[in-house]
């Protein structure tokens, strides 16, 4: 049994649930600043250089986790507190729900400008041409996708690899958000960051979909619908991971996700997920947030249990 790590994961998850992200001097923002400064110095239109950037920074974050792990191995109280702080730092489940809540408030009030202003904190698509239905769909999709990225995946890697897993995963995901998207600048430089993120999220995304099926009845959703839509529609999505999470959520809530998305000058037409469902409404944002919370808290419980069952090395 690894009680210090298990307790730290539980305390960190509780801190995120009660407090959301740290408001000042967020370590992830600091990591992003370092990554951005390094990119500015070394950027080349090269996969090899981009791979060095992604792998080097991920190794540095994971290495810090190894040092913290070794330094606290013989001090259970310190090990628990460091793990709790790291878990709180890398989780974003409650902040995700709060950002979605801001969108719902704006849409309930019929305030489209406020809703459009709130979208960049949730999704990268262009909000200028979106109406209320489009903003609601974008929000539900973002909550579904980011439940895995912001909460389930960090907990998965914390359970699997302790402090190095927590810090290494957050580094991978942050780098993907910074350079892993499609653009002329990052098409080659960001390739490795995007592929590394795909790999790190492959199992957590499927765990998220499975937990969505299990938790759907808790929010008045359909477990059979979630399972059916996940298996039928998830593989059609261009992402190997987020499509599974979005499809399961679509089936759970009985809504239709996917379709035309605009990202600046780029337009993507994505396959429909839950094509027989209805268009999402602001009320579905609330249901998606409640489902997301149930899913990531379930993942926290599994992570703690897995660490308690683990033979301490």
UniProtKB/TrEMBL annotation:
- Choose any GO biological process term that the UniProt entry carries and state it: cobalamin biosynthetic process
Among Pfam families, the record links this protein to: CobD_Cbib (PF03186)
* One MF annotation (Gene Ontology) recorded for this entry: ABC-type vitamin B12 transporter activity
Its function, per the record, reads: Converts cobyric acid to cobinamide by the addition of aminopropanol on the F carboxylic group.
Cellular component GO terms, alphabetical: plasma membrane
Q: Which UniProt keywords apply?
A: Cell membrane, Cobalamin biosynthesis, Membrane, Transmembrane, Transmembrane helix
Matching InterPro entries, A to Z? Cobalamin_biosynth_CobD/CbiB
Which membrane topology describes this protein? Answer: Multi-pass membrane protein
| Associated pathway | Cofactor biosynthesis; adenosylcobalamin biosynthesis
**What protein name applies here?**
Cobalamin biosynthesis protein CobD
| Family statement drawn from the similarity comment of this UniProt entry | Belongs to the CobD/CbiB family.
